[in-house]
Amino acid sequence: MTKLRAHTKEIYDIMLLAQSSFRIVDYLYREREGLEIEVINQNQFLKYTAEMNWRIYVIELSKLFSDRDSDWFNLKRFIQKFKKGYEYNKIKEIDNQSILYWEQNLALEKRKIDNLILQRDKLYSHTDKNRAKVKNELSFSDAKELIQIVQRIVSEIYNAVFDTNISFEPIGEPIDDLKKIVQALVDKKKEMIDFYKAHCKEQNIDPKFIGLT
Questions:
Q1: For 24-59, how does the pLDDT look when each residue is reduced to its tens digit (9 = 90+)?
Q2: pTM attached to this predicted model
Q3: Are 176 and 84 within one domain?
Q4: 16, 101: one domain
Q5: CA 210/CA 213 separation, integer angstroms
């Protein structure tokens, strides 16, 4: 039981890191209007932040969805351990119906998982000579669904085996501070625009003349 708890916690931690990175990417790429979109689109560091966090999302989540034995925490291997003759078979709270449901979830998402692993192998873990042909085919809803698959497995184990409700909303997420940074940049830009508009008014200059509306 102790080993299962530690194993599940490792999967949970990997998922949380992928989730935190995904939320940053989702926030920086979502549709928005006004000064916020200008601030984000014109800030090279924020663009870099989005790219790096997508890379983290892909690399971390691939550890769970790869079916290679070298990826110790992959879900396929983990689920197998609950089957007859394997390590966690004596955990009676996880029955064959749960195992079948988890495996069906993975099978239904095969296209998404294959693209995730392809990105990891050809773009991020290694620099493949044919990397230009590798495209991200995951929508934001696809990326979120892969995270939710992991959450469902982890949640069921914690609830059924350890009689514990586990949270997927940790306090102090990086996205919280990122939102504050973006808002501060927006406020600063607005302050600058208001200053120039006031100056234009004093000098009897049409703000549109210098690109202000």
A1: 999 998 877 788 888 898 899 999 999 999 999 999
A2: 0.87
A3: no
A4: yes
A5: 9
CB 90 within 8 A of CB 42: no
Do residue 132 and residue 181 come from a single domain?
Answer: no
Q: 190: domain range?
A: 171-213
Q: Are 24 and 178 in contact (CB under 8 A)?
A: yes
61 close to 127: Cβ distance less than 8 angstroms: no
Tally of structural domains, the chain = 2
Same domain, yes or no, for 16 and 96?
A: yes
Which residue in 118, 14, 1, 146 sits closest to 73, CA to CA? 14
- Rounded to 10 degrees, the C-alpha dihedral 44/45/46/49 comes to 130
One-letter amino acid at 35 equals L
| For the chain, counts of helices (H) and of strands (E) | 8, 0
With beta carbons less than 8 A apart as the criterion, state whether 148 and 106 touch.
no
